[in-house]
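Q: Here's a chain of 220 amino acids. Please give me its 3D structure as tokens.
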Amino acid sequence: MAASHISIPIEGIRLEGELNIPANAGGLILFAHGSGSSRHSPRNRYVAAMLQRAGLATLLFDLLTEQEEDAEMFSRHLRFDIAFLARRLSSASVWVLDQLVAKQHRAGYFGSSTGAAAALVAAAELGDTIGAVVSRGGRPDLAGESLGRVTAPTLLIVGGNDIPVIPLNEEAFESMNCEKALRTIPGATHLFEEAGALEKVAGMASEWFCNHLQPTARRR
């Protein structure tokens, strides 16, 4: 199953990505990468491969252009600009869903680190367009007031040894009014590098998306 390279035109720029649509895909998962990461992240590529095996289409793409990434490497001025990242994500989502994906495909977000906050803000803005959200080691707290406006069923996954991030996820969880779940993977740290940890993340994400992105599923 080969991925198709796509170039997403928004806001006078182009964002590069890889779209992979298995036969009879039940939904499309757009990845929102975290600070300092990109579509080449080995962890997100692993999760994407697992989602594809579960019958879900995936889109791995960069929220920044190559020039912006080069500048950001030194200035770090964009990685915590959640409003900017969310605007890029929502604009790209609308374009992809209008131009490239069959109408029966429902969309979900998989966000990591600060990308999880951007995914939640974008999900709040797009409403029923987004059918589910999964956060991996995310900073959902950075979504701020948007948390209370998210309607998509949301799963927050944190590592049991990711001590600084656990309370931030717990606080964000309490601020959300949608269908939600908070799951901890014992022994895992922030990047889920421990043996079997990322596999558990992918399994949880696959189950969440498959349960909530069925064409006949009712949106909350």
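Q: Can you summarize the key feature?
A: The chain is about 35% helix and 25% strand.
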